[in-house]
Amino acid sequence: MSREVVVIGCGMTKFGRHDDKSLMDLLVEASIKALDDTGIENIKIDSVYVATMLAGELTHQTAIASALADQLGLLPAGAQRIENGPASGGSAVINGYQAIASGVCDAVLVTGGEKMRHVPGDKITDLISTMTHPIAEYIHGVTLPSLAAMFTRLYMTHYGVTREHLARIAIKNHENALRNPYAHIHQRITLEGIYKGPEAEVNNPVISDPLRLYDSCPVTDGAASVVLCSAEEAKKLGISKPMVKIAGVGNATDTLALSERKNPLVLEAVKLASQKAFKMAGLKPQDIDLAELHDAFEILELAESEDAGFFEKGTAHKAVEEGVTLLSGSFPINPSGGLKARGHPVGATGVAQVVELTWQLRGEAGERQVKNAKRGFCCNFGGFGNNVTAIILERV
Amino acid sequence: MNQLVSGTKDLYISQFLSSFSVIQMAEDIEAMLKLDWDIPKKPYPPKLITLASGEKMVVREASREEVPILLDALRPLITVSKDYYDVVAARMYAELLSWYRYRSRNEFCLAGVIDGVLVGLANNRHINQKEVWSHHTIALKRGGRVGAHMFAAKHEYSFEYLGAEKIYVVAESPIGFRRWMVEWNLKKTDGIQHELHGATAWVITADEYFKNIKPRLVFGERPVPEDLLKQSMQLKIGEADVIKEK
Amino acid sequence: MSEKQLTAFKCIRCGKINYPKRPICLNCRGRDFTEVKISGEGKLLTYTHLYAIPEGVEQLPLTLGLIEFEEGIRVIGQIEDQNVKIGDKLVPVWGFLRKKDGKEIYGFKFKLASE
Questions:
Q1: Which end of chain C is more exposed for a tag (fewer CB within 10 A), N or C?
Q2: What is the pLDDT of residues A355-369, one digit of tens each?
Q3: Chain A, nearest residue to C26 by Cα
Q4: Does any CB of chain B come closer than 8 Å to the CB of residue A187?
């Protein structure tokens, strides 16, 4: 019998460029914010999970979870680093959830972080490309943008998605981020500037056609953190803030090589991970009020929203046309600004999605608050869709 | 007595002559040292560029009289080492100051202006009508491809209005290298040292410009609406983004 | 002299043709395979021209495509021709892919099948 798990504290650093801070500084800052947010002084933490994809490679520090437990004075808590590519954050939250649900731990700290802006862009691109299939993809010069581009072209050909749809998603996410003090990019963009005007050719150059600069997320430094505990423990501690529970989780894998997918248009791992989460939560997609999706490339916001079950396959772009996914729409997606504008410190993203949903469900999201948000969904996308986590949060 | 008188007259005459020749000499020296335009010069027609943010940037030629304001904008950047702003700002400062004091031959400078605020500068120097040293490009507003548009505009001026056939380019920062050598697919010369302190120059020809660059990288609406153009003439200086980023 | 041949791996137990080589069949977890020569033309399902090319790649832009063969396998690879469209027929050709860590890497890439 598994126990109910609630989020009792959350926090994040501003996402952006932090030349004067180390990765550990960022992890500590976010963790302290989450611990303080519980309102409980010296809360007992049984285990620490740190999500980071590239800490060893980029900041020359391994076994970083052990180091964080030390720096936060949480010894002798257990500690583990969780690495699942860009889905490290989601995986770390799921691991924390499992520890409490199973009864092994009563309270855990989950922090995700990455420091990447100090490294040249092409080195980052190369390290990220190491997620791809070494023989079938990497060695041929395949990078994540090139995979996203090929996927985008398939979507455009089969479903009639256009550059304008992708531009509108980017514009929406930039607009939302203007109301998010923690977001990396605070820049309004316009359809004229990135698509319609002739200058769009310079403003929004081709990276890998049909993918352009504003169709993909930036490289970001930052960390995000949550404190999870069992519902009974939360009651015992006398937590005063509105409680948000983890209603369902799911994790699924798909073929490493994009060429081996059953149907290259379908993100099977998104489908299966979402189905598991919905089944566990006893909910359906229509019960969800808002979603934080993994738009490393804007096409993924479209595809994930379909494969997670919110729109029929091949129709999400129509919802974009109708403004359904705007902050003011009937199903807001990425009220935080998403990866596109909130930023994407790789290991932090999955945890930041849970932080945003917690704020939204508690009514603490300020100017980007979605009204009557009771249930939220987030999806953290690893590799090019070969390892996906899905988490559903519900206000208690 | 005659000797004394004639001697005095000689003294007077030679003193008079020498002070006259000092002035003459000074004027001759200045005439020798002064540098200005010695090739035909058509003015650059201002244009309006829409950035990704929707903001409208006026790109127009800067006048010699404006140089003191431009130097005010560059001065704070001379100590900012991030992304080689210090080297670019210091060198551009020298180029514009030299132009202002008539110590630079065939130099021009274009300014990018949004809402009356200076956001970018780009300058070139023509050796003669056909051959050009690309000098510098600096973006005071970052993240909006201001530099890309300014770099393109100064090539537009030299190739399309001043009769250039070859422009020699170098970069001081990796960002510059990526934007120009890579994005513009410039060709490396066989060891020609650029006048900007000896870096091996890259080159673009008029033919390549019209074929490969103009159709995809050079944009802007003309004419600029009267009110925007007028506003752009009263230059204001803001805080450069790279300084805010600290 | 052996001619380089694009080869896939047919699972002896269930008949699924796997590409690239794997230790265990994706379909039935069988462990024994026979080789299947991939001959003929593949169909281009999707492609891209990559401008932000990785270090060691010498083609700018790099044309990459996803190609499907009759045998039921799909392959991602470099395409020698720049002007391609979805549905084009391509044939595999052995050639230089890129440099990596100072070594020259060769492999299968693709070109338009001649008429």
A1: N
A2: 999 999 999 999 999
A3: A255
A4: yes
A42 is a domain residue: yes
A101: domain CATH number? 3.40.47.10
CATH number corresponding to C40-112: 2.40.50
pTM assigned to the model: 0.91
A213 and chain C in contact, CB less than 8 A: no
A27 to chain B, closest Cα gap in Å: 21
Mapped onto helix, strand or coil, the DSSP state of residue B85 is: helix
* A-chain residues near B55 (CB < 8 A): 193
Report the candidate in C21, C41, C31 with the shortest Cα–Cα distance to residue C92. C41
Paired tokens of B226: 């009267």
Domain residues of chain C, as ranges? Answer: 7-36, 40-112
- Relative to beta strand A290-292, strand A375-382 is parallel
10-residue averages of pLDDT along chain A (396 residues): 93 96 97 97 96 91 94 97 97 98 97 94 91 95 97 98 98 98 97 95 94 96 98 92 96 97 97 98 98 98 98 98 98 98 98 98 97 97 96 97
Residue A158 lies in a domain: no
- Domain with A226, as residue range(s), is 5-119+219-237
Residue pointed to by tokens 């180390």: A22
Share of chain A above pLDDT 90, in %: 96
Residue A31 lies in a domain: yes
Render A114-161 in DSSP notation, one character per residue.
E--TTS-HHHHHHHHHTTS-TTTTGGGT--HHHHHHHHHHHHHHHH--
Per-residue pLDDT of chain C (115 residues; tens, 9 = 90+): 346 889 999 999 999 999 999 999 999 999 999 999 998 899 999 999 999 899 899 998 999 999 999 998 999 999 999 999 999 999 999 999 999 999 999 999 999 997 5
User: Does A233 reside within a domain?
Assistant: yes
Cβ–Cβ gap C47/A143 under 8 Å: no
Decide: A368 and A176 in contact? Cβ < 8 Å.
Answer: yes
Domain count, chain A: 1
Contacts of A7 (CB under 8 A, 6+ apart): A226, A227, A228, A243, A244, A245, A246, A354, A358, A393
> Is there a contact between B245 and A17 if contact means CB atoms under 8 Å apart?
yes
C91 to chain A nearest CA, in Å? 16
Per-residue model confidence as pLDDT tens digits over B187-238: 999 999 999 999 999 999 999 999 999 999 999 999 999 999 999 999 999 9
Which B positions 177-216 lie with beta carbon below 8 A of chain A? Answer: 183, 216
pLDDT in tens, B67-114: 999 999 999 999 999 989 999 999 999 999 999 999 999 999 999 999
